[in-house]
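Chain and backbone:
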Amino acid sequence: MPAVKKVLLWTIFILLIIGLSFLFIGEKDNSDTKPIYSLGKIVKGSLQLSVSATGTVKPITTVQVGSQVSGTLEKIFVDFNSHVKKGDVIAQIEPSLFKAKVAQAKANYNTAIAEKEKAWVTVEESKRELNRAKNLAESNMITQSEVDTAKYQYNQAFVEHKVKLAAIDLALASLKQTEVNLAHTTIKAPIDGVVLSRDIDIGQTVAASLQAPVLFTIAQDLRLMQLETNVDEAFIGMISEGQTVSFTVFAYPNRQFNGKLAQIRLNPRLETDVVLYNSIIHVDNDDLSLKPGMTATVTIDIDHRENVLKIPNAALRYRPTIPPAKLKEIKNKLKVRKNEALIWRHLETGPEPIKVNLGLAGDKETEVNSPDIKEGMKIILFEKRKKVKRKTGIKLF
């Protein structure tokens, strides 16, 4: 039993020593923090201000060809990518029903002419009867009422003749309408161009009762294309017609295409609470590399500078970890005005403020000017804090 007590006492003593070592030995987190700076340089070079957007390549002129009459498609003379001239026949609707209607309209027209001639014969006959009645009345052989009757019959025949003349005009108009409908069964190309789409097949029924169905889409000239792009209202004041535009398409990622801003349309579009303005860019496509519908990444050049001092935009956003009142005091002392800003030079003693004049601002860099800066000077972009722990206590081992 004394031996067991002795072991137990030694065990308690050792555990007590280990517990005290955790309290007094090792690192305590009453440490300081030390800033680590990410640095950039003031460099000299070119700077470009541009507006970026995405757009779609389209032909300048695209015509949708439809049918004004209903019927069954009998023949198709073109296909996708076919080149056509204005007036070329590109499709034919089965015309027999329309030919029959033309023949019927011609018969009605001829009948109306015959009815007119028959009515004129009646007019001539009633006129002779009126003249005879007048002569007999002068000889007191008939009464005045009989003369009036003859006059009435003449006037009636004359009016009937006018009705027949109008019927001829009506029949002629109907004939012309049926002839036009027959002509519309032959579908022709309205412009010179290339067939982009064919939306019908032989034997398909075309129904034009409500609106003309689209049968073909023809682009006028694929050597002249346009880009339709939407520019954010925040940048619309920076662009104007005639500015140079560069863009790339996914099909040719290493090739840059060029164009000119031709039109800024005034009709706004609202997408996800952002106001956009449709802008049209004209592009030469002599080698036909660009295809309708391609997606383009567009850069509209606003301004360009050469051989200027510039800094990363992150340097303008950096603020040292100092009280706001101290920062305000520094700005007042350096008299920072509009179109001026502070950048912070990296020194061993800490960040040093430098007042600079701001020039052209690009997407990633901004032009700066100041007698206190020079090419190659290191400036602070941002900082982060690293904890530096201090060791306290007694090291026993």
Summary: The domain at 34-46+308-391 is CATH 2.40.420.20 (conserved putative lor/sdh protein from methanococcus maripaludis s2 fold). The mean pLDDT is 87. The longest helix spans residues 96-138. The chain has three domains: 34-46+308-391, 51-60+221-305, 96-184.
